[in-house]
């Protein structure tokens, strides 16, 4: 069948890769979006992603239930979130530096505890089959979609509505845009930021569970290729809007699929460079959209201060 | 009576030391939970880091690239930039050094070594210099762009050693052709430590004088303290940013050259050995002071050197060292919030904090 599709296999493989590979980007960028709306940056989501991937895999293996693994991953992410939320709000402590420390700490813990789980295989998350109408196996496998991805797709508009139309969304925006005004409204800045960071870390942990339990579907130390870091750039690109995080995640998932798709039709001389395309794309987008003259449209006013 | 100057100095020495001790304590608790005897672990770390001359040489071997790599974060920090592209600059520096070493292989060894160093300095410098330029001209966040460049550098390394620069005889681990033995960096006489250590020490001393004792360094510190004031004073902020970034990258690039020309002899994935990320940690513990970075690099080099023995004698996974580094980093960051808290009523130190450069 591979031959029958020929070059058409490339766009199909990229589309399939987009549907499979964009969920981690989506969860992490939604988590980062929530965090940044409250005025703090969490660069440590890379560590959160790894902790999530490790704990999901370990729990799924030990209990036999992948969904229990997903929940555990979220909870494990929240624990890292508590550390970040507390430490980054101490006086004179820089949130970006805390993020770097959390990457080292989180990946250290994940590799430390995850060592015994590299060999065994955990039950993967089930997939929904949307491709039964086609008799091409490539189409069928391309349209296998994880319910977790659909969950992420549903969270994006919900979060958009939450920010725009709810009281809590307003509180978060107030804390992120103008902490002094929020304080005058009687809102606890510490609590709101803590909750946002913890909830964002929960989402990032679930993104990690997707990595280890669905795609690529195994646990090893190289499972996350910097998706947690790219999320920060992705949120800038998405202008801090959850719906645009969804579109940006699809774009990045697609960019990630280019290398493997070309390799499948025999172009592998630039394999590593094509694999770097999400990073190159992120950098290009940042070069094109940032400006030294003004702060970005949509950026929370107190971000990084 | 403790005057303001003294209390600042006491804090600058005591707080980092207390932070290191506290993170050792936390690490001990972590080890106890993991089922290892904490005191045994401390003893093993000490033995394999500083316990004998042989072990200490091993520590120094690891400290050399750490010193150079830490400057990649420490120098831009004086300008108020957080750059974490150390790993990428090390990789491109190593690639540049290999390319120069292979092209000039027949020239006299001294010339080849100088050429390798210059190539590494240029490659690493331009790599991080680009981060500075993007920051200045496009307002691109330097932390994120330098991080992305790490991944791009590693992809470039994999591409080059897997294709254009590949030595066909390297089967399991794709590598470039080796540098001729005669062109390698030698050892300091009487030791097993290569000259990279001297490079690291010299670079840190130069960096210290550049930042603390020259007009250029003063301008950089002013711009780091208050960029608007620096602009009003007519300082060329853009030029400063790019020059500091170039220097920072060139130090990390030199670390790549040291790794290639003194340790591995060829470029392969061993270049990507986490010296970049540990270098960030060194810079933060040293509070971006290049002289302090030499000491911290030796300390951290010792901890890195003990990874193997923790694995052998305590059955702890190799990620233990990473956990320890993460703990130290977190505690050191927390300790930042303690400055100025201890001498409150003494002599009005609190109000003076903002005048202190980090």
TrEMBL record, chain A:
Q: Which domain of life is it from?
A: Bacteria
**Membrane-crossing residue ranges in chain numbering:** 6-31, 43-61, 67-87, 96-118, 142-163, 192-213, 219-238, 245-263, 269-288
Would the keyword Zinc-finger turn up in this protein's UniProt record? no
In the bilayer, the protein is annotated as: Multi-pass membrane protein
InterPro entries on file: ABC_transp_permease (IPR001851)
Q: Where in the cell is it found?
A: Cell membrane
- Signal peptide (UniProt feature, chain positions): none
| Keywords assigned | Cell membrane, Membrane, Transmembrane, Transmembrane helix
Coiled-coil stretches noted in the UniProt entry, renumbered to this chain:
none
Cross-referenced PANTHER family, in alphabetical order? ABC TRANSPORTER PERMEASE PROTEIN, SUGAR ABC TRANSPORTER INTEGRAL MEMBRANE PROTEIN-RELATED
Q: What is this protein called?
A: ABC transporter permease
* Species per Swiss-Prot/TrEMBL record: Gloeocapsopsis crepidinum LEGE 06123
Which lineage ranks, top first, belong to the organism behind this chain?
A: Bacteria, Bacillati, Cyanobacteriota, Cyanophyceae, Oscillatoriophycideae
UniProtKB/TrEMBL annotation, chain B:
| Cleavable signal peptide | none
Q: Where in the cell is it found?
A: Cell membrane
| Record has Membrane as a keyword | yes
Topology relative to the membrane: Multi-pass membrane protein
Tell me one Pfam family matched here: BPD_transp_2
Membrane-spanning ranges? 60-81, 88-105, 111-134, 146-165, 193-211, 275-304, 316-335
- Keywords from the UniProt entry: Cell membrane, Membrane, Transmembrane, Transmembrane helix
Report the main location listed first in the record: membrane
Domain of life (superkingdom): Bacteria
What's the name of the protein? ABC transporter permease
